[in-house]
Amino acid sequence: MPRLTEPEEFEEIEIRSAADLLPLAWSADLPDYALDIRWSPDGTYLAALPSTGQPEIHHRQGNEVLALPSHRGGNGSLAWHPDGTTLATFGQDGILRLHHIATHTAREIQLPRGWAERCAWNADGSLIAAAVGKAVHIIDPHTLETLHLIDDHRSTVTDLAWHPTLLNQLATASDGGARMWRLGETKPHARIDDGIAAVLTTWSPDGRWVVTSDQTPSVHLFDMKKRTPLFIQGFETKIKALAWQTGGTKNLPWLALAGSPAITVWPCFGKNGPRGATPIQLYGHLKEVTTLDFPKEGPYLASGARDGFVLLWLPHHSNGPAFIAREENEITALRWSPDGLNLAYATNTGHLAIHSLTTKD
Amino acid sequence: MNTTKLPVTVLTGFLGSGKTTLLNRILTENHGLRIAVIENEFGEVGIDHELVINADEEIFEMNNGCICCTVRGDLIRIIGSLMKRRDQFDHILIETTGLADPGPVIQTFFVDDEMKDKLALNAIVTLVDARHIPLHLESSEEAVKQIAFADSILLNKTDLVTPAELHALEARIKAINGVAKLQRCQNANIPIDSVLDIGGFNLDRAIGIDPRFLDPEYPFEWGGILEVSAGTLTFEANENPDPSMTAVLIPVSATDEESLALAREIAVRAFSHDAIEASSGSALTADGTPYDLILQEGTMSWTCKIETTGPLAIFTQHYPEELDLKFLSQTGELQPAISASYKPDHSHDETVTSVGIQADGDCDEKKLNTWLSKLLRERGTDIYRMKGVFAIKGNPNRFIFQGVHMLLDPADGGPWGNKPRRTSLVFIGRDLDRAELNQSFRKCLA
User: At B204, is the secondary structure helix, strand, or coil?
Assistant: First the structure.
C-alpha cells in the first residue's frame, strides 16, 4: 500500500468560496454537542441527536421542530426507518425508542444494561438492530421482541452495519475486527480478524466491501465477493470519518476516509478495488477532519473538521476545496439531503445549520 | 472553545485496600468539584450518582509495533462520550479493579490521539492495605505493579499493624517505587486534595524528581548537632500518627560537617541494633544507645543527663518537625548548630525496583537516542515507568520525557536559565541492573 504524503504546497492551497452557491438557509441550536444528524429518506425532515437532552426533528424548511424524549445517561444513536415514517433513538439508558412521526407517538423496549453505541434498520425496515455491550439485539419493530441475539464478540460492539440489500446480513465491529453475520447462524460467516480493535464499520452500497476503521491509524476492508481481506495503513491518525461515493462519476463506488487534516479517496471498483491503487489526497483543512459525506447521486464531497470549516470538494477534478462555512467550533456531523440540494452540519456546541443550493448545477 | 485539558486521576489498589471507601468519600464530600467517576464493572460505590459510569475494563492490543502496548478500549469510548457533554466535569477519576495491571490504563493516555489532546493524566494513586499487602506482594504481580506505577501511594489501615511492621512496609514500598509520594491514613481518611491535586504524571513532576532519590540511603531522616551545657536536656514532642520513633544521641567534638559525618556513621551502626523502648518520662543516655521513643496522645517528654558541656549529635528516624520535637535546656529551647536530612533506607530484595541516575553536564543527543532506543527495544517489557530530565548539548532548554514500557512521551521543559545543567532520570521496573544502567547511560554524556 502506498504511504500517504503531504504536498509541499499544503499551506498555500487556495480555497475558493462556494458560499454563494450554497448559502445558509436556516440554523438552530441543539441542547448539547451534536452527535449525529440524519435526513429522512424523502428529505422532508432532519433529525438531530445531541449528546444529552432532547433529540430534535426539524422540517426541511426550518419552520417546524419536534423535540423527542431524551435518554438518561446520554443519547447514543438514531436511525430513520427506510420508509421515513419512524425514527429510532437509542441511548445509554438501554432504551430503544421508535417515534412515529405522523402521530407523534412512541413505543420503546428496555434492553439489558451495557454500553449502547448504535442502532440501525435493515434495508426494508423489517428489522432493527441495537448494539448493547457485547451483544447485538435483532428486534422486530412491530412486536419489539428480540428475534436474534448475536453475542459472540470479544468486547463491546462499537458499530454495526446492515448489508445494503440482503435483509438478513449485517457486520459488527469490536475488538478483533469485523464479523459478518447471517441471522439464524451462531457463528459469523466471514470476519476481518487480525487482532486489531475495530471502531467503525460500513458496508459498501454495492454490497461488495465491509470496511472497518481501527483504534490504530489503519483501515481494514473485506472483499465479500472474493472473500479476501485488505489492509490500508500509513494514515497520520485514527480514521474517524468514512463516506461512500455512489454517483457523479463513471466507475463506482469510491471510499473517502479521514482522521487527520488530510482526506483520502480510494477506488473500490474493478478487479482489485483499492489494492495497489494510489488514493486521491485532499488537503485544505487545518485540523482533524471529523465528518464526510457524498450526496446520493453527485460528485461533491463535503467535509467538516475541528478547525470549524465546512468545505466542498470535487475529488476527481481538483485537489482544491471550495469554502461553504466556518464555525467557531468543531464540526461534528454533516449530511447531504437525499436530493443533494441541502447540506446540513452541526457542531460540538450544538449549533445546527442548513445550507441550500441556489441552482441545480 | 475550551482548550484546557481535563485532569484525570487513576485510582488503583488491591482488593480490600479501601478504594470504595475513598470513592464514596470523594463523591459525597463537599469539595465543589464535579467529578465523573469511571468505576470498574464490579464497582461497589453505594450511591446513585449520575456521574458514576461502569466500565468493562476491555483491554485491546494496539498492534502498533510496541509489543507490550495494550490500551483500555472502554476508556477511549467512555471518556470520548463524556467529552461530548455540555455539563462538563472538573475531573475524571478512573477506578480499576483490584486485580488490574495499571499499565493499559496509562498507555491509553499515551497512544490515543484524542485522549492525549484533551486530557491530562494527573496521577496514578495506589491505595495499599497495610495489613495484607505483604502477602499480596508475594503472590501477585499486579499488586507489585500497582505500587510500581504509582505517583502517590496511600498507605491505608495503618492502625492494623505495629510500628515496626509499618516501617518495614514503607521501606519495602520505597524499594519498589522510590519516587512516589507516600502518605499514611486510616479508613481511607485523607484530604481529597491528596488524591485529586497531585500533578503526579505531569512535566512539572518530571522536572521535580527528588534529588535525594539518588543519594545514599540511611536508617534515619534527620541528624543535627546541639551545643549542650552540663545538666539536663529535655526532649519534648507532640502526638503523631507514628506509634514510635527511633533516636540516638552521640557526643561529638565539634559542630561542623566533619563531626556530623563521623557521627552519622556511628549512628548507622547504632540503628542496626535493637532499640530500647522509652515511654514518655523515661531517661535517655547520650552514649550511642538507640531508643524507640514511644509516641502517645498529648505532649511527651524524655530527659537526658549531660555530664559535660559540649556538642551532642542527635539522629532521628523522622524529621523533628513531624512530631514537633523540641530540645530544651534549663535556659530554654536549643536550635541545632548544624543539621542534615537523609534519604531513608530501603530493603533491596525486590524484583521490581527503582533506579535513579544523575549526571552533571550535557548528553550527546545522538548517543542518547541510540541508548534509549536500544534499552526500550530490549527491556521495554520490564520497564514499567520512566521519567527523565535531560540536558542536551546545544539545546538551551530542558528535554523531558516520561514513558510507560516502550512508549515515550518527550516534551520541551523550558529553558535551563541559570540553573546547573544536569540530567536526572528514574526507571521503575523488573530486574533492573543499577550498575549496568548507570554505566551505559554515562556513555551518552557529551
Answer: helix
What is the total residue count of chain B? Answer: 446
Query: B65 in contact with A at a CB cutoff of 8 Å?
Result: no
ipTM of the complex model:
0.83
Distance from CA of B85 to the nearest CA of A (A): 6
Question: Mind listing the domains of chain B with CATH numbers?
Answer: 6-201 (3.40.50.300), 217-341 (no CATH), 352-442 (3.30.1220.10)
Whole-number pLDDT of residue A157: 95
- The Cα–Cα gap between B354 and B388 comes to 13
Question: Does an H or E element contain A75, and which?
Answer: strand A75-80
Nearest to A240 by CA among B113, B1, B107: B113
Check if B272 contacts A (Cβ < 8 Å): no
Q: Quickly count: other Cβ atoms within 10 Å of residue B84's Cβ.
A: 18
Which residue has 477534478 as its cell numbers? Answer: A317
A positions 144-163 inside 8 Å of B (CB) = 155-156, 158
Q: Which three cell numbers stand for residue B407?
A: 512508549
Whether this prediction's pTM lies above 0.90 is answered by no
A74 in B contact zone (CB under 8 Å): yes
User: What's the pLDDT band for B51 if we cut at 50, 70, 90?
Assistant: low
- Are B77 and A155 within 8 A, CB to CB? no
Contact at CB, A117 and B77, closer than 8 angstroms: yes
In whole angstroms, what is the distance from residue B346 CA to residue B356 CA? Answer: 14
Is some CB atom of chain A closer than 8 A to the CB atom of B112? yes
Shortest distance between the Cα of A32 and any Cα of chain B, in A, equals 6
Relative to beta strand B6-13, strand B119-129 is parallel
List the alpha helices (DSSP H) in B249-360: 257-271
Residues 33-52 of B with CB under 8 A from A: 50
Q: Which cell numbers hold the place of A151?
A: 453475542
Q: Collapsing DSSP states into helix, strand and coil, what is residue B174?
A: helix
Query: DSSP letters of A183-221?
Result: TT-SS-SEEE-SSPBEEEEEE-TTS-EEEEEESSSEEEE
What is the C-alpha to C-alpha distance for residues B388 and B398, in angstroms, rounded to an integer?
10
Residues 6 or more apart in contact with residue B426 via CB below 8 angstroms: B178, B179, B209, B213, B354, B355, B356, B357, B386, B387, B388
Quick one: cell of A56? 430534535
Q: Is the dihedral of CA B80, B81, B84, B85 positive or negative?
A: negative
Average the pLDDT over A166-191 and give the result.
95
| H or E element at residue B94 | strand B91-95
